[in-house]
Amino acid sequence: MTQQKTILRALAGETLPTPPIWMMRQAGRYLPEYRATRAQAGDFLKLCYNPELAAEVTLQPIRRYGFDAAILFADILLLPQALGADLWFVTGEGPRLSTITSQADFDKLSGKEDIHETLNPIYETVRILRRELPEETTLIGFAGMPWTVATYMIAGQGTKDQGPAHALKAENRPLFEAVMDRLTEGTIEYLSKQIEAGAEVVKLFDSWAGSLKGEDFQKYAVEPARVITSELKKRHPGIPVIGFPREAGEGYVGFAKATGVDCVALDNSVSPEWAAANVQVDGCVQGNLKSSHMVTGGQALVDETRAIVEAFKNGPHIFNLGHGITPDADPENVQLMIDTVRNG
Ligand code: CP3
C-alpha cells in the first residue's frame, strides 16, 4: 500500500519536494479559540482530562492552518500524576508537583499498571481525534522522556539548571535510577495505549537532555530512548518514533542510530547546514525555526524559513520550530511561515 500521508512518508525516509509541516505547541495560548476553550474547561489540567475539549483544541490549528500533523493535546507531567504525584499549575509560573527526595517519597508512587485509571481520558481524546481529523493529517502522540520528567518530579517544579535532579543523581544514585526506571516503564505503557487508541507516530520530549553531559547523556538520554523505542516497535511493528533530545548539540550526531528513532527533532541552537551534514545523513530530521520569529515576523521569518527548507532539501525533513510557539506569537506569522514553506 502506498503511504499517502506526507508526515509518514518523510518519517519512512522519503525526500519530498515540499517538507510537511506542523508546529510544537500549535494548540496554545497564541490562538484566541484556544483561550476560549480553555476558559470553558476551567483550567489547563481540566482541559487535558476532558476528551471532547482536548480534541477540540487539537483540531483548532488544523482547521485554521491545515497543518500536516496534529499533536495530541496533553502534557508530559500527566504521567507523574498518574504515578501518584500531586500536580497543579500556578498561573504565570508553571507546574508544581510533590517532590521526590527520599526512598519514602518514591515508595508512595504507584506501579506502571496503575497509570491507566488516570490516563484513560487521554486515550479517549486520541480515539476522538482519529475519527475527526482529515484523512491526510497524521496524529502524533507523545510523552516526556524519563530525565526531563524526573527533573520536575524531583524538584517539584521547573528549574533553570535541573540542579535538584543532578544533585540526587550524585548523592543517591540508586534512588535516582529507581525514579528513571519507573518513568521508563510507565512511558512504555502510556505510549503503547496511545498507539492502540490511534496515535500514528509518537514523539519523545527530552527538553532538558542538553544538561546531561558525557556518560550521563548516554545513560540517561540515549539509553532510555533506545529502550522505549525498541519496546514500542516490538509491540507495534512499524510505529514511527521522533526523538527530541533538546540542546543535545554534538549529542544529536548518531542519536538516531544509537536509539532506533526514525527522526531527530532539532532545536534552534544547531545550524541547519551542520545538521544536514551530521544528523540528516542518518535519516529524517525535524525543525528548526526559532520560535521568536512567530512573534517578530517579517522578512527575517521568510529568509530564515527559506534557508532551513534549502539546507534540508536533499533528505527527509519535517518543518517545525526549534521549540514550542510562545503565547505572545502573532497567528498571522504562523500563516506566513506555512505559506513560505509551501510556496517558496
Ligand atoms: O505541542 C503541543 O501542543 C502538544 C501538547 C503539549 C503541551 N506541553 C501542552 C501545554 C506538549 C507536547 C507539552 C510538552 C511539555 N510540557 C514539555 C516538553 C516540551 C517543552 O516545551 O520543552 C514540558 C517541559 C512541559 C511541562 C509544562 N507544561 C510546563 C513547563 C508548562 C508551563 C509553561 C507554559 O508554557 O505555561 C506547561 C503548560 C502547558 N502545556 C501549556 C500547554 C498548551 C500552557 C497551558 C495553558 O494553557 O496555560
UniProtKB/TrEMBL annotation:
Chief location category: cytoplasm
Pathway: Porphyrin-containing compound metabolism; protoporphyrin-IX biosynthesis; coproporphyrinogen-III from 5-aminolevulinate: step 4/4
Molecular functions per Gene Ontology: uroporphyrinogen decarboxylase activity
Source organism phylogeny: Bacteria, Pseudomonadati, Pseudomonadota, Alphaproteobacteria, Rhodobacterales
Protein name (record): Uroporphyrinogen decarboxylase
Keyword list, A-Z: Cytoplasm, Decarboxylase, Lyase, Porphyrin biosynthesis
GO CC entries: cytosol
Quaternary context: Homodimer.
Family statement: Belongs to the uroporphyrinogen decarboxylase family.
BP-aspect Gene Ontology terms: protoporphyrinogen IX biosynthetic process from glutamate
Protein's cellular compartments: Cytoplasm
Catalytic activity from the UniProt record: uroporphyrinogen III + 4 H(+) = coproporphyrinogen III + 4 CO2
Residues at the site labelled Transition state stabilizer: D75
Ranges where the Uroporphyrinogen decarboxylase (URO-D) domain occurs: 20-29, 140-156
Listed NCBIfam families: hemE
Organism: Aliiroseovarius pelagivivens
Statement: the UniProt record of this protein carries the keyword Cytoplasm: yes
Class of this enzyme: lyase
Protein's UniProt keywords contain Manganese: no
Residues that bind substrate: R25, Q26, A27, G28, R29, D75, Y152, S207, H323
